[in-house]
Amino acid sequence: LAQVWLKSWLGVSAARSTRAEVLSCQSCCVIMVARLTYRRQCRYNTKSNKQRILKTPGGKLTYQAVAKTSKGPKCGDCGKALIGLPRLRPKEYRRLKNREKRVSRAYGGSRCAGCVRSRIVRAFLIEEQKCVKQVLAEKLSQAKAEQGGGKKKGKR
Fold first, then answer.
1. In this predicted model, what pLDDT tens digit does every residue of 100-144 receive, in sequence order?
2. Is 33 helix (H, G, I), strand (E, B) or coil?
3. Residues with Cβ within 8 Å of residue 99, at least 6 apart in sequence
4. Which pairs count as long-range contacts for 74-77, CB under 8 Å and 24+ apart, including other chains?
5. Is 73 exposed, middle or buried (0-12, 13-18, 19+ CB in 10 A)?
6. Phi then psi for 2, rounded to 5 degrees?
């Protein structure tokens, strides 16, 4: 009688089903999950209170606190992730040595290599432009001096 009720409840026709199918369906429907309690003071599922279920060697299920994952350091100009620096939370960055916090290059832990290269090229081109302007101004002043050297205006 219990098998017939279970078959009708699960929507399985009596003609096609076997006892093994009914038992397998019965075993998948009745699963008990252990209730777990938080081990810290915060009792709510917040962003800073994430937990994962861990099975102890004794076979007991407990909660283990999961630390927040870090986004990692980004380039200040383009926003890309900086290569060669660890992805840590701010508290852990404080514990690092200086050589672990930056890369051995100008703007090491702040800008990516591509942005540093473009900054250097930009600075070089600006300096070159200043030199070209100065040379053109000198040529122009020489041309004016040669042109205006023959005539002198007097007072009227």
1. 999 999 999 999 999 999 999 999 999 999 999 999 999 999 999
2. coil
3. none
4. 75/110, 75/111, 75/112, 75/115, 76/110, 76/111, 76/115, 77/111, 77/112, 77/115
5. buried
6. -65, -35
The predicted structure's pLDDT at residue 33 = 72
Calculate the alpha carbon distances from 88 to 72, 75, 102 in Å. 6, 16, 13
pLDDT in tens, 26-40: 555 666 777 899 999
CA distance 103 to 115: 14
Specify the DSSP class assigned to residue 40. Answer: S
Mean pLDDT, the chain, rounded, equals 83
